[in-house]
Amino acid sequence: MYNPHRGLGPTPGGANARLNELLDGIRAEFENQARASSDYEHSMAQQINEMQMVREKVYAMEQTHLALKQKYDEEISRLHRELESRGGNPGAPRIGGPPQNPATSQQAPPSIGLGPSNLFGGIMAGSNGTPGLAPPPPQPDQHGPPQHGMPQPPPPPPPPLQGPPPQQQPPFQPGGYPGPANGYSQPPQSSSSPGPNKNRGVLNRGPGPATPQLNQPIPYPPDPRAAASPQVGHPVPNQHPQFRVGNALAELDLERLPGHQKKVENDWFAIFNPEVPRVLDVDLVHTLQHESVVCCVRFSHDGKYVATGCNRSAQIFDVVTGQKICILQDESVDAVGDLYIRSVCFSPDGRYLATGAEDKLIRVWDIASRSIRNTFAGHEQDIYSLDFARDGRTIASGSGDRTVRLWDIDAGQNVLTLSIEDGVTTVAISPDTKYVAAGSLDKSVRVWDATSGYLVERLEGPDGHKDSVYSVAFAPNGKDLVSGSLDKTIKMWELVAPRGGHPNNAPKGGRCIKTFEGHKDFVLSVALTPDGNWVLSGSKDRGVQFWDPRTGNTQLMLQGHKNSVISVAPSPSGGSFATGSGDMRARIWSYKPYP
Protein backbone atom coordinates (compact mmCIF):
# COMPACT_ATOMS: atom_id res chain seq x y z
CA MET A 1 0.00 0.00 0.00
CA TYR A 2 1.22 3.47 -0.70
CA ASN A 3 2.32 5.52 2.40
CA PRO A 4 2.38 9.26 1.84
CA HIS A 5 4.70 9.91 4.88
CA ARG A 6 7.45 7.56 3.80
CA GLY A 7 10.80 9.34 3.70
CA LEU A 8 9.46 12.43 5.49
CA GLY A 9 10.80 11.76 9.08
CA PRO A 10 9.66 9.90 12.20
CA THR A 11 6.10 9.03 12.82
CA PRO A 12 4.10 10.69 15.67
CA GLY A 13 4.81 7.70 17.87
CA GLY A 14 8.53 8.19 17.49
CA ALA A 15 8.29 11.89 18.33
CA ASN A 16 6.57 11.14 21.64
CA ALA A 17 9.23 8.63 22.55
CA ARG A 18 12.00 11.20 21.88
CA LEU A 19 10.20 13.84 23.97
CA ASN A 20 9.84 11.43 26.87
CA GLU A 21 13.51 10.62 26.62
CA LEU A 22 14.45 14.29 26.84
CA LEU A 23 12.13 14.85 29.80
CA ASP A 24 13.67 11.89 31.60
CA GLY A 25 17.10 13.39 31.05
CA ILE A 26 16.00 16.76 32.46
CA ARG A 27 14.38 15.04 35.43
CA ALA A 28 17.54 13.10 36.15
CA GLU A 29 19.67 16.25 35.93
CA PHE A 30 17.28 18.10 38.25
CA GLU A 31 17.45 15.27 40.77
CA ASN A 32 21.26 15.32 40.57
CA GLN A 33 21.32 19.08 41.18
CA ALA A 34 18.81 18.71 44.01
CA ARG A 35 21.00 16.07 45.66
CA ALA A 36 24.08 18.26 45.19
CA SER A 37 22.26 21.24 46.70
CA SER A 38 21.09 19.16 49.62
CA ASP A 39 24.63 17.91 50.18
CA TYR A 40 25.91 21.52 50.04
CA GLU A 41 23.31 22.72 52.51
CA HIS A 42 24.16 19.85 54.82
CA SER A 43 27.85 20.72 54.53
CA MET A 44 27.15 24.39 55.25
CA ALA A 45 25.04 23.48 58.25
CA GLN A 46 27.89 21.37 59.57
CA GLN A 47 30.33 24.26 59.08
CA ILE A 48 27.98 26.69 60.81
CA ASN A 49 27.61 24.29 63.71
CA GLU A 50 31.38 23.90 63.90
CA MET A 51 31.85 27.71 63.81
CA GLN A 52 29.26 28.12 66.54
CA MET A 53 31.06 25.54 68.65
CA VAL A 54 34.38 27.34 68.09
CA ARG A 55 32.75 30.67 68.99
CA GLU A 56 31.32 29.22 72.17
CA LYS A 57 34.71 27.75 73.10
CA VAL A 58 36.44 31.09 72.45
CA TYR A 59 33.81 32.88 74.52
CA ALA A 60 34.23 30.38 77.35
CA MET A 61 38.02 30.80 77.19
CA GLU A 62 37.60 34.58 77.20
CA GLN A 63 35.35 34.45 80.25
CA THR A 64 37.83 32.17 81.98
CA HIS A 65 40.65 34.56 81.12
CA LEU A 66 38.71 37.54 82.44
CA ALA A 67 37.87 35.72 85.65
CA LEU A 68 41.52 34.80 86.13
CA LYS A 69 42.61 38.35 85.34
CA GLN A 70 40.16 39.81 87.83
CA LYS A 71 41.30 37.32 90.46
CA TYR A 72 44.92 38.19 89.67
CA ASP A 73 44.25 41.94 89.90
CA GLU A 74 42.39 41.52 93.18
CA GLU A 75 45.30 39.51 94.58
CA ILE A 76 47.77 42.20 93.49
CA SER A 77 45.59 44.87 95.12
CA ARG A 78 45.42 42.79 98.31
CA LEU A 79 49.20 42.39 98.36
CA HIS A 80 49.63 46.13 97.76
CA ARG A 81 47.35 46.94 100.66
CA GLU A 82 49.17 44.45 102.89
CA LEU A 83 52.49 46.00 101.92
CA GLU A 84 51.15 49.51 102.56
CA SER A 85 49.81 48.49 105.96
CA ARG A 86 53.34 47.38 106.89
CA GLY A 87 54.81 50.71 105.82
CA GLY A 88 56.21 49.43 102.53
CA ASN A 89 56.42 51.23 99.20
CA PRO A 90 54.62 49.38 96.40
CA GLY A 91 55.92 51.89 93.87
CA ALA A 92 59.60 51.06 94.56
CA PRO A 93 61.64 49.21 91.95
CA ARG A 94 61.41 45.44 92.07
CA ILE A 95 64.39 43.56 93.42
CA GLY A 96 66.17 41.77 90.62
CA GLY A 97 64.34 43.59 87.86
CA PRO A 98 63.93 46.97 86.20
CA PRO A 99 61.91 49.70 87.87
CA GLN A 100 58.23 49.48 87.26
CA ASN A 101 56.45 52.14 85.27
CA PRO A 102 54.25 54.05 87.74
CA ALA A 103 51.54 54.18 85.10
CA THR A 104 51.30 50.40 85.14
CA SER A 105 52.85 49.15 88.37
CA GLN A 106 50.65 51.34 90.53
CA GLN A 107 47.00 50.88 90.01
CA ALA A 108 46.29 52.73 86.80
CA PRO A 109 44.08 55.80 86.60
CA PRO A 110 40.51 55.35 85.51
CA SER A 111 38.93 55.13 82.12
CA ILE A 112 35.27 55.89 82.02
CA GLY A 113 34.72 53.84 78.91
CA LEU A 114 31.33 52.19 78.59
CA GLY A 115 31.07 50.88 82.09
CA PRO A 116 29.48 52.05 85.30
CA SER A 117 30.08 55.23 87.17
CA ASN A 118 32.52 56.63 89.72
CA LEU A 119 35.40 58.24 87.86
CA PHE A 120 36.54 59.93 91.03
CA GLY A 121 37.16 56.58 92.68
CA GLY A 122 39.65 55.65 90.01
CA ILE A 123 41.49 58.91 90.19
CA MET A 124 42.01 58.47 93.84
CA ALA A 125 42.11 54.72 94.27
CA GLY A 126 43.32 53.65 90.87
CA SER A 127 43.25 49.89 91.21
CA ASN A 128 43.83 47.84 88.13
CA GLY A 129 40.33 47.05 87.13
CA THR A 130 37.86 46.69 84.39
CA PRO A 131 35.59 49.08 82.50
CA GLY A 132 33.69 51.80 84.04
CA LEU A 133 34.63 53.89 86.98
CA ALA A 134 33.65 51.82 89.96
CA PRO A 135 36.08 51.84 92.87
CA PRO A 136 37.34 48.59 94.32
CA PRO A 137 35.52 47.04 97.28
CA PRO A 138 36.07 48.80 100.60
CA GLN A 139 39.02 47.58 102.61
CA PRO A 140 39.69 48.08 106.30
CA ASP A 141 42.23 50.78 106.96
CA GLN A 142 44.67 49.96 109.70
CA HIS A 143 45.91 53.50 110.14
CA GLY A 144 42.93 55.76 110.34
CA PRO A 145 39.70 56.97 108.77
CA PRO A 146 38.94 56.55 105.07
CA GLN A 147 41.08 58.59 102.75
CA HIS A 148 41.84 59.26 99.12
CA GLY A 149 43.09 56.14 97.42
CA MET A 150 44.67 57.70 94.33
CA PRO A 151 47.79 55.99 93.05
CA GLN A 152 50.63 57.45 95.02
CA PRO A 153 53.64 59.27 93.59
CA PRO A 154 57.10 57.73 93.32
CA PRO A 155 59.48 57.96 96.28
CA PRO A 156 60.58 61.46 97.30
CA PRO A 157 63.90 62.97 96.30
CA PRO A 158 66.85 61.68 98.28
CA PRO A 159 67.90 63.19 101.59
CA PRO A 160 71.04 65.35 101.59
CA LEU A 161 74.34 63.65 102.21
CA GLN A 162 75.47 66.36 104.57
CA GLY A 163 73.70 68.87 106.69
CA PRO A 164 72.39 69.45 110.15
CA PRO A 165 71.67 66.41 112.29
CA PRO A 166 68.14 64.98 112.26
CA GLN A 167 65.66 67.00 114.27
CA GLN A 168 62.56 65.96 116.10
CA GLN A 169 59.65 65.59 113.66
CA PRO A 170 57.30 68.58 113.66
CA PRO A 171 53.54 68.03 113.86
CA PHE A 172 53.10 68.41 110.09
CA GLN A 173 54.82 65.87 107.85
CA PRO A 174 54.27 66.75 104.20
CA GLY A 175 55.79 64.49 101.63
CA GLY A 176 57.93 64.72 98.59
CA TYR A 177 60.86 66.46 100.27
CA PRO A 178 64.05 65.36 101.97
CA GLY A 179 63.08 63.56 105.14
CA PRO A 180 65.84 63.01 107.68
CA ALA A 181 67.55 66.35 107.12
CA ASN A 182 64.64 68.61 107.90
CA GLY A 183 62.14 66.55 109.83
CA TYR A 184 59.63 66.24 106.98
CA SER A 185 58.67 62.82 105.83
CA GLN A 186 56.44 61.16 103.28
CA PRO A 187 53.04 59.73 104.19
CA PRO A 188 52.52 56.14 103.17
CA GLN A 189 50.64 54.96 100.13
CA SER A 190 46.92 55.26 100.78
CA SER A 191 44.50 52.44 100.32
CA SER A 192 41.52 52.33 98.03
CA SER A 193 38.48 54.41 98.65
CA PRO A 194 35.20 53.42 100.22
CA GLY A 195 32.25 52.68 98.03
CA PRO A 196 30.56 49.77 96.32
CA ASN A 197 32.12 47.92 93.43
CA LYS A 198 29.52 48.74 90.81
CA ASN A 199 29.19 46.67 87.62
CA ARG A 200 32.82 46.37 86.75
CA GLY A 201 33.27 45.49 83.12
CA VAL A 202 35.99 44.31 80.79
CA LEU A 203 37.49 47.09 78.68
CA ASN A 204 38.73 49.60 81.23
CA ARG A 205 42.16 50.76 82.27
CA GLY A 206 41.06 51.03 85.84
CA PRO A 207 38.33 52.05 88.20
CA GLY A 208 37.05 55.52 88.65
CA PRO A 209 37.81 58.06 91.31
CA ALA A 210 37.59 56.93 94.87
CA THR A 211 37.95 58.95 97.99
CA PRO A 212 41.11 59.91 99.87
CA GLN A 213 42.09 58.37 103.12
CA LEU A 214 44.26 59.69 105.89
CA ASN A 215 46.99 57.47 107.29
CA GLN A 216 49.67 58.21 109.83
CA PRO A 217 52.77 59.58 108.09
CA ILE A 218 55.53 57.01 107.71
CA PRO A 219 58.94 57.97 106.34
CA TYR A 220 60.15 56.32 103.18
CA PRO A 221 63.34 54.28 103.40
CA PRO A 222 66.55 56.04 102.31
CA ASP A 223 66.83 56.52 98.57
CA PRO A 224 70.00 55.05 97.00
CA ARG A 225 70.06 57.95 94.55
CA ALA A 226 70.93 60.30 97.41
CA ALA A 227 74.55 60.48 96.32
CA ALA A 228 73.54 62.15 93.07
CA SER A 229 71.29 64.77 94.66
CA PRO A 230 72.72 68.31 94.52
CA GLN A 231 71.88 70.52 97.45
CA VAL A 232 70.28 73.92 97.07
CA GLY A 233 72.23 76.73 98.63
CA HIS A 234 75.58 75.17 97.68
CA PRO A 235 77.45 75.28 94.39
CA VAL A 236 76.37 72.58 92.01
CA PRO A 237 79.20 70.09 91.41
CA ASN A 238 81.21 70.80 88.29
CA GLN A 239 80.39 67.41 86.86
CA HIS A 240 76.77 68.58 86.57
CA PRO A 241 77.08 72.09 85.17
CA GLN A 242 73.77 71.77 83.32
CA PHE A 243 71.71 71.20 86.50
CA ARG A 244 68.92 73.72 87.06
CA VAL A 245 66.07 73.55 89.52
CA GLY A 246 63.60 75.01 87.05
CA ASN A 247 60.06 74.36 88.28
CA ALA A 248 60.96 71.21 90.25
CA LEU A 249 60.82 72.94 93.62
CA ALA A 250 60.33 69.57 95.32
CA GLU A 251 64.00 68.89 94.58
CA LEU A 252 65.09 71.68 96.91
CA ASP A 253 66.35 71.09 100.44
CA LEU A 254 64.08 73.15 102.67
CA GLU A 255 66.70 73.34 105.43
CA ARG A 256 69.33 74.88 103.18
CA LEU A 257 67.13 77.51 101.53
CA PRO A 258 67.67 81.12 102.59
CA GLY A 259 64.85 82.76 104.49
CA HIS A 260 63.45 84.79 101.62
CA GLN A 261 62.98 81.63 99.52
CA LYS A 262 60.79 79.79 102.00
CA LYS A 263 58.04 80.26 104.53
CA VAL A 264 57.67 77.56 107.19
CA GLU A 265 54.75 77.54 109.61
CA ASN A 266 53.41 75.02 112.11
CA ASP A 267 51.62 72.73 109.63
CA TRP A 268 52.46 74.12 106.20
CA PHE A 269 55.30 75.59 104.23
CA ALA A 270 55.96 77.33 100.93
CA ILE A 271 59.05 77.31 98.73
CA PHE A 272 59.66 80.23 96.37
CA ASN A 273 61.49 79.60 93.12
CA PRO A 274 65.11 80.75 93.56
CA GLU A 275 65.50 81.23 89.81
CA VAL A 276 62.87 83.97 89.46
CA PRO A 277 62.26 87.11 91.53
CA ARG A 278 59.92 86.53 94.46
CA VAL A 279 56.86 88.72 93.96
CA LEU A 280 54.23 86.89 96.07
CA ASP A 281 53.61 86.04 99.70
CA VAL A 282 51.08 83.49 100.97
CA ASP A 283 49.38 82.93 104.33
CA LEU A 284 46.90 80.47 105.77
CA VAL A 285 43.63 82.17 106.72
CA HIS A 286 41.30 79.33 107.81
CA THR A 287 41.29 75.56 108.08
CA LEU A 288 37.82 74.09 107.53
CA GLN A 289 37.56 70.63 109.05
CA HIS A 290 35.26 68.04 107.47
CA GLU A 291 34.26 64.50 108.33
CA SER A 292 35.14 63.13 104.89
CA VAL A 293 37.21 63.86 101.83
CA VAL A 294 36.71 67.36 100.43
CA CYS A 295 36.15 66.74 96.73
CA CYS A 296 35.62 70.33 95.58
CA VAL A 297 35.81 73.97 96.65
CA ARG A 298 34.26 77.05 95.02
CA PHE A 299 33.85 80.73 95.93
CA SER A 300 30.71 82.79 95.49
CA HIS A 301 31.06 85.50 92.84
CA ASP A 302 31.34 88.25 95.45
CA GLY A 303 34.09 86.33 97.26
CA LYS A 304 32.24 86.34 100.59
CA TYR A 305 31.52 82.63 100.81
CA VAL A 306 33.18 79.37 99.89
CA ALA A 307 31.33 76.11 99.28
CA THR A 308 32.75 72.63 99.70
CA GLY A 309 31.52 69.24 98.55
CA CYS A 310 32.08 66.12 100.61
CA ASN A 311 30.28 62.90 101.50
CA ARG A 312 26.49 63.39 101.38
CA SER A 313 26.56 67.17 101.82
CA ALA A 314 27.69 70.51 100.52
CA GLN A 315 28.75 73.10 103.09
CA ILE A 316 29.03 76.89 102.89
CA PHE A 317 31.50 78.92 104.97
CA ASP A 318 32.00 82.62 105.62
CA VAL A 319 35.37 83.55 104.12
CA VAL A 320 36.15 86.29 106.66
CA THR A 321 35.25 84.41 109.84
CA GLY A 322 35.66 80.80 108.69
CA GLN A 323 32.30 79.99 110.29
CA LYS A 324 30.06 77.36 108.73
CA ILE A 325 26.93 79.10 107.40
CA CYS A 326 24.89 76.08 106.36
CA ILE A 327 24.88 72.43 105.40
CA LEU A 328 22.93 71.39 102.30
CA GLN A 329 21.96 67.73 102.40
CA ASP A 330 19.13 65.88 100.70
CA GLU A 331 17.46 64.04 103.56
CA SER A 332 15.29 62.05 101.16
CA VAL A 333 18.31 60.05 99.99
CA ASP A 334 18.90 56.64 101.52
CA ALA A 335 21.30 57.10 104.42
CA VAL A 336 23.14 53.85 103.67
CA GLY A 337 26.47 54.07 101.86
CA ASP A 338 28.54 56.94 100.52
CA LEU A 339 27.31 59.72 98.26
CA TYR A 340 30.12 62.11 97.43
CA ILE A 341 29.42 65.58 96.08
CA ARG A 342 31.95 65.87 93.26
CA SER A 343 31.28 69.45 92.18
CA VAL A 344 29.68 72.63 93.50
CA CYS A 345 29.13 76.07 91.95
CA PHE A 346 27.32 79.25 92.97
CA SER A 347 24.92 81.16 90.74
CA PRO A 348 26.26 84.62 89.82
CA ASP A 349 23.83 86.33 92.20
CA GLY A 350 24.77 83.99 95.08
CA ARG A 351 21.20 82.81 95.63
CA TYR A 352 21.70 79.25 94.45
CA LEU A 353 24.27 76.49 94.79
CA ALA A 354 24.37 73.67 92.26
CA THR A 355 25.76 70.30 93.32
CA GLY A 356 26.65 67.23 91.26
CA ALA A 357 26.97 63.85 92.87
CA GLU A 358 27.57 60.14 92.50
CA ASP A 359 23.84 59.46 92.25
CA LYS A 360 23.83 61.06 88.74
CA LEU A 361 21.63 63.97 89.87
CA ILE A 362 22.18 67.72 89.76
CA ARG A 363 20.52 69.59 92.60
CA VAL A 364 20.10 73.36 92.57
CA TRP A 365 19.69 74.61 96.12
CA ASP A 366 18.01 77.81 97.25
CA ILE A 367 20.57 78.76 99.88
CA ALA A 368 18.31 81.05 101.94
CA SER A 369 15.59 78.42 102.41
CA ARG A 370 17.96 75.39 102.38
CA SER A 371 15.57 73.80 99.87
CA ILE A 372 16.04 72.18 96.47
CA ARG A 373 14.88 74.43 93.64
CA ASN A 374 15.64 72.05 90.75
CA THR A 375 16.62 68.43 90.41
CA PHE A 376 18.01 67.47 87.03
CA ALA A 377 18.16 63.80 86.03
CA GLY A 378 19.48 62.47 82.76
CA HIS A 379 23.10 61.55 83.21
CA GLU A 380 23.74 57.82 83.27
CA GLN A 381 26.91 57.89 85.38
CA ASP A 382 28.45 59.98 88.15
CA ILE A 383 28.63 63.74 87.64
CA TYR A 384 32.19 64.99 88.01
CA SER A 385 31.99 68.66 87.14
CA LEU A 386 29.57 71.60 87.06
CA ASP A 387 29.82 75.22 86.02
CA PHE A 388 27.26 78.02 86.34
CA ALA A 389 27.11 80.45 83.41
CA ARG A 390 27.14 84.17 84.05
CA ASP A 391 23.67 84.44 82.53
CA GLY A 392 22.44 83.07 85.88
CA ARG A 393 20.28 80.35 84.36
CA THR A 394 22.53 77.91 82.46
CA ILE A 395 24.46 75.08 84.14
CA ALA A 396 26.96 72.85 82.34
CA SER A 397 27.61 69.33 83.63
CA GLY A 398 30.12 66.64 82.72
CA SER A 399 29.73 62.95 83.46
CA GLY A 400 31.32 59.58 83.05
CA ASP A 401 28.53 58.75 80.61
CA ARG A 402 30.56 60.58 77.90
CA THR A 403 28.27 63.59 77.69
CA VAL A 404 28.29 67.29 78.46
CA ARG A 405 24.81 68.65 79.16
CA LEU A 406 23.46 72.16 79.45
CA TRP A 407 20.50 72.80 81.74
CA ASP A 408 18.16 75.78 82.03
CA ILE A 409 17.10 76.29 85.66
CA ASP A 410 14.22 78.59 84.69
CA ALA A 411 12.79 76.14 82.15
CA GLY A 412 13.76 73.23 84.39
CA GLN A 413 15.09 71.11 81.55
CA ASN A 414 18.06 69.85 79.57
CA VAL A 415 18.56 72.20 76.59
CA LEU A 416 21.66 70.69 74.93
CA THR A 417 23.50 67.36 75.07
CA LEU A 418 26.99 66.98 73.61
CA SER A 419 28.39 63.46 73.24
CA ILE A 420 32.02 62.41 72.87
CA GLU A 421 33.96 59.16 72.64
CA ASP A 422 35.10 58.91 76.26
CA GLY A 423 34.20 60.01 79.76
CA VAL A 424 33.97 63.71 80.61
CA THR A 425 35.93 64.71 83.70
CA THR A 426 35.64 68.50 83.73
CA VAL A 427 33.60 71.34 82.20
CA ALA A 428 33.85 75.13 82.10
CA ILE A 429 31.71 77.89 80.55
CA SER A 430 33.44 80.90 78.99
CA PRO A 431 33.02 84.30 80.68
CA ASP A 432 30.75 85.49 77.85
CA THR A 433 28.62 82.30 78.10
CA LYS A 434 29.15 81.60 74.40
CA TYR A 435 31.31 78.50 74.73
CA VAL A 436 31.56 75.40 76.87
CA ALA A 437 34.82 73.47 77.25
CA ALA A 438 35.32 69.93 78.49
CA GLY A 439 38.26 67.69 79.34
CA SER A 440 38.10 63.98 78.77
CA LEU A 441 39.82 60.70 79.45
CA ASP A 442 40.76 60.60 75.76
CA LYS A 443 43.45 63.28 76.46
CA SER A 444 41.57 65.98 74.51
CA VAL A 445 40.01 69.31 75.39
CA ARG A 446 36.94 70.24 73.32
CA VAL A 447 35.22 73.61 72.97
CA TRP A 448 31.66 73.90 71.64
CA ASP A 449 29.37 76.75 70.75
CA ALA A 450 27.00 76.71 73.73
CA THR A 451 23.99 77.70 71.61
CA SER A 452 24.34 75.58 68.48
CA GLY A 453 26.40 72.72 69.89
CA TYR A 454 28.92 73.01 67.04
CA LEU A 455 32.42 71.85 67.92
CA VAL A 456 34.72 74.83 67.39
CA GLU A 457 37.96 73.52 68.91
CA ARG A 458 39.54 70.17 69.69
CA LEU A 459 42.80 70.71 71.52
CA GLU A 460 45.11 67.73 71.16
CA GLY A 461 47.95 66.50 68.97
CA PRO A 462 51.74 66.45 69.36
CA ASP A 463 51.69 69.43 71.73
CA GLY A 464 48.66 68.15 73.61
CA HIS A 465 48.32 66.12 76.78
CA LYS A 466 49.66 62.59 76.93
CA ASP A 467 47.09 61.35 79.44
CA SER A 468 43.56 62.06 80.64
CA VAL A 469 42.58 65.70 81.19
CA TYR A 470 41.06 66.24 84.63
CA SER A 471 40.56 69.99 84.82
CA VAL A 472 39.91 72.91 82.45
CA ALA A 473 39.38 76.62 83.10
CA PHE A 474 38.88 79.66 80.88
CA ALA A 475 41.13 82.65 81.32
CA PRO A 476 39.34 85.88 82.32
CA ASN A 477 39.86 87.21 78.78
CA GLY A 478 37.82 84.30 77.40
CA LYS A 479 40.43 83.74 74.68
CA ASP A 480 42.75 81.35 76.52
CA LEU A 481 42.16 78.08 78.30
CA VAL A 482 44.23 76.09 80.79
CA SER A 483 44.05 72.34 81.33
CA GLY A 484 45.54 69.94 83.88
CA SER A 485 46.23 66.29 83.21
CA LEU A 486 47.31 62.97 84.65
CA ASP A 487 50.49 63.48 82.59
CA LYS A 488 51.55 65.84 85.46
CA THR A 489 51.49 68.94 83.26
CA ILE A 490 49.35 72.05 82.85
CA LYS A 491 48.90 73.50 79.37
CA MET A 492 47.71 76.92 78.25
CA TRP A 493 45.86 77.03 74.95
CA GLU A 494 45.21 79.99 72.69
CA LEU A 495 41.78 79.65 71.13
CA VAL A 496 42.48 81.11 67.71
CA ALA A 497 40.07 79.13 65.53
CA PRO A 498 37.31 81.11 63.76
CA ARG A 499 34.13 81.00 65.78
CA GLY A 500 30.96 79.30 64.56
CA GLY A 501 32.16 76.08 62.97
CA HIS A 502 30.18 73.27 61.42
CA PRO A 503 29.97 69.78 62.91
CA ASN A 504 31.44 68.22 59.75
CA ASN A 505 34.09 70.88 59.29
CA ALA A 506 35.10 71.86 62.80
CA PRO A 507 38.13 74.15 62.82
CA LYS A 508 41.06 72.99 64.90
CA GLY A 509 43.05 76.17 65.20
CA GLY A 510 43.65 76.22 68.95
CA ARG A 511 47.32 75.89 69.82
CA CYS A 512 49.29 75.15 72.96
CA ILE A 513 51.25 78.27 73.86
CA LYS A 514 52.72 77.13 77.16
CA THR A 515 53.36 73.89 79.04
CA PHE A 516 53.90 74.08 82.81
CA GLU A 517 55.99 71.22 84.20
CA GLY A 518 57.04 70.76 87.81
CA HIS A 519 54.40 68.72 89.63
CA LYS A 520 55.52 65.26 90.73
CA ASP A 521 52.16 63.57 90.17
CA PHE A 522 48.69 63.92 88.61
CA VAL A 523 47.42 67.47 88.17
CA LEU A 524 43.85 67.32 89.45
CA SER A 525 42.71 70.95 89.38
CA VAL A 526 43.66 74.17 87.59
CA ALA A 527 42.36 77.75 87.68
CA LEU A 528 43.40 81.33 86.93
CA THR A 529 43.28 84.30 89.28
CA PRO A 530 40.66 86.90 88.27
CA ASP A 531 43.33 89.30 86.98
CA GLY A 532 44.80 86.54 84.79
CA ASN A 533 48.25 87.01 86.33
CA TRP A 534 48.58 83.55 87.86
CA VAL A 535 47.69 79.96 87.05
CA LEU A 536 46.95 77.84 90.15
CA SER A 537 47.22 74.07 90.21
CA GLY A 538 46.55 71.32 92.73
CA SER A 539 48.07 67.87 92.48
CA LYS A 540 48.14 64.41 93.89
CA ASP A 541 51.67 65.29 95.07
CA ARG A 542 49.84 67.29 97.80
CA GLY A 543 51.21 70.55 96.45
CA VAL A 544 49.69 73.78 95.15
CA GLN A 545 51.71 75.82 92.67
CA PHE A 546 51.44 79.37 91.34
CA TRP A 547 52.62 79.71 87.72
CA ASP A 548 53.41 82.78 85.66
CA PRO A 549 51.40 82.32 82.44
CA ARG A 550 53.73 84.63 80.52
CA THR A 551 56.94 82.71 81.23
CA GLY A 552 55.79 79.25 82.32
CA ASN A 553 57.86 79.57 85.50
CA THR A 554 56.48 78.56 88.86
CA GLN A 555 56.54 81.33 91.46
CA LEU A 556 55.95 79.14 94.50
CA MET A 557 55.02 75.70 95.69
CA LEU A 558 52.77 75.40 98.74
CA GLN A 559 52.59 72.25 100.86
CA GLY A 560 49.72 72.49 103.30
CA HIS A 561 47.75 69.25 102.99
CA LYS A 562 48.53 65.69 104.03
CA ASN A 563 46.90 64.15 100.97
CA SER A 564 46.01 64.91 97.37
CA VAL A 565 44.92 68.46 96.60
CA ILE A 566 41.78 67.59 94.67
CA SER A 567 40.46 71.09 94.08
CA VAL A 568 41.80 74.64 93.92
CA ALA A 569 39.69 77.76 93.47
CA PRO A 570 40.68 81.45 93.42
CA SER A 571 38.34 84.05 94.85
CA PRO A 572 36.68 86.16 92.13
CA SER A 573 37.37 89.20 94.32
CA GLY A 574 41.12 88.47 94.26
CA GLY A 575 43.66 88.06 97.04
CA SER A 576 42.62 84.62 98.28
CA PHE A 577 42.16 81.04 97.16
CA ALA A 578 40.81 77.79 98.58
CA THR A 579 41.99 74.19 98.47
CA GLY A 580 40.20 70.91 99.12
CA SER A 581 41.99 67.68 99.93
CA GLY A 582 41.80 64.02 100.72
CA ASP A 583 42.98 64.87 104.25
CA MET A 584 39.37 65.90 105.05
CA ARG A 585 40.19 69.58 105.18
CA ALA A 586 39.51 72.61 103.06
CA ARG A 587 41.74 75.63 103.56
CA ILE A 588 41.42 79.29 102.71
CA TRP A 589 44.66 81.07 101.88
CA SER A 590 45.63 84.63 101.07
CA TYR A 591 48.19 85.83 98.56
CA LYS A 592 49.58 89.32 98.13
CA PRO A 593 52.56 91.14 96.60
CA TYR A 594 55.94 90.62 98.26
CA PRO A 595 57.42 92.26 100.19
Question: How would you describe what is shown here?
Answer:
InterPro entries: Tscrpt_rep_Tup1_N (IPR013890), WD40/YVTN_repeat-like_dom_sf (IPR015943), WD40_PAC1 (IPR020472), WD40_repeat_CS (IPR019775), WD40_repeat_dom_sf (IPR036322), WD40_rpt (IPR001680). It comes from Hyaloscypha hepaticicola. This protein is α+β, with helices and mostly antiparallel strands. Among the domains are: 47-86; 249-593, YVTN repeat-like/Quinoprotein amine dehydrogenase (Methylamine Dehydrogenase, Chain H). Helices cover 14% and strands 29% of the residues. The protein contains three helices and 30 strands. A six-stranded antiparallel β-sheet has the order 1-2-27-26-25-24, with no helix packed on it. The radius of gyration is 32 Å and the shape is elongated. The chain starts with 11 loop residues before the first helix and ends with a strand. Mean pLDDT is 77; it is low at 89-119, 125-243 and 499-507.
List its salient traits.
595 residues; alpha+beta; Methylamine Dehydrogenase, Chain H; six-stranded antiparallel beta sheet; 30 strands; 14% helix; elongated
Write the layout of secondary structure elements.
Elements: H1 12-85, H2 102-105, H3 119-124, E1 262-264, E2 269-272, E3 280-289, E4 296-299, E5 305-309, E6 314-318, E7 324-328, E8 341-346, E9 352-357, E10 362-366, E11 371-376, E12 383-388, E13 394-399, E14 403-408, E15 413-419, E16 424-429, E17 435-440, E18 445-449, E19 455-459, E20 469-474, E21 480-485, E22 489-494, E23 511-517, E24 523-528, E25 535-539, E26 543-547, E27 554-559, E28 565-570, E29 576-581, E30 585-593
Antiparallel strand pairs: 1-2, 2-27, 3-30, 4-5, 5-6, 6-7, 8-9, 9-10, 10-11, 12-13, 13-14, 14-15, 16-17, 17-18, 18-19, 20-21, 21-22, 22-23, 24-25, 25-26, 26-27, 28-29, 29-30
